[in-house]
Write the structure tokens for this entry.
Amino acid sequence: MAYAAAAGNSLASAAAASGVLALQRAMVWLAGASVAIVFVEPSPYELVTVAATVIFIATGLRVRLVFMPLVALLFAINVGYSISAASLMDKPEVVNWIATSWYMAITVIFFAMVMSEDTAARLDMLRRGLIAGAVVAAAAGIAGYFNLVPGGHDLLTLYDRARGTFKDPNVLAAFLVLPALFALQSVVSDSFAKSFRSTVALGIMGLAILLAFSRAAWGGLAITAAFMLALIYDEGRFGRFGRHILGAEMALDLPFGIGPLQFHKYFPEDTHNSYLNAFMSGGWIAGVCYPALVFVTVIMGFRHVFVPVPWQRAYLAIFAAFLGTVGEGFIIDTDHWRHFWMMLGAMWGMFAAAQRYKTKPDQMLMASAQASSETQRACPSPQSSP
């Protein structure tokens, strides 16, 4: 019976621990979802984070030594704010600004401590909450923009730009970038059912970003999505970018390289980087001279963009394509692409041919200056006559 009682207590403890874990994860989800609604103050996010802090402290939240530099820096920043605002504390907006800054610092420390344990599960809950909140905020912005809700246009837009549950369209668009990236990850990597749902969510968020007319968010989403996808399709230490780093370290120790077509003997695949391949295949000589040739050509190419030559349209097309290939050289071996070398040779030929078009204006200026000087000598000013 003692054994049965002990077993019962153990099961009860396990159930209680499981319940606490579920509650903590639910609060993380709620924090992620509530951050999307900030057009009222105090916002739901403030209320949720305060409640979550109380719950986590009551159920176990550890302060780690590794967070001390973070705490010190946040404290110093806000002390600086507070000192500078000391003479302005009679202004309510300044007091509110200072209080908000201290509160934001506290949330940083809170999320750092929360995410340091049960990390994978809590991050997943935060991701789900962010996507749910983002879809609500984005749908609200779209509904307001197209006047789908009576009276919603004035509430959910600003200057005919979607703002949804935010005060500012720019903030809505900036917030949607991270949830959109999470949705994009699911689109390209999850099962069909999850991918389909994520595609719908991504479409809603993408449309809201578009209707917010925030050029910074448009560019930010494009750049961050490209960067994230490039890293997703890499394969870690021996993935493409991992090989680049390890290969660069090897190149510093091998003045004569390892020879052409030998890189795959050291790593699972080829270099997939023309500039690294120059070092590995030809040592320091080729490794320095190849990128020097390419980037000198690029610099000269920019210098000839506005030279008024009869073949300028063709030159611009070749130069644009050459620039693209130079960029591709960082992720692909382009050093034996025949059209790459054809473009490089054609550009140097056009550089040479353009010289006479560059010198003609210079000669005209020199001739004009000489004529002006001769005129001044031939016609002295009245002040110089006796």
Remarks:
- The chain has two domains: 15-62+117-232, 238-358.
- The CA atoms of residues 186 and 361 lie 58 Å apart.
- The longest helix spans residues 2-34.
- The radius of gyration is 32 Å.
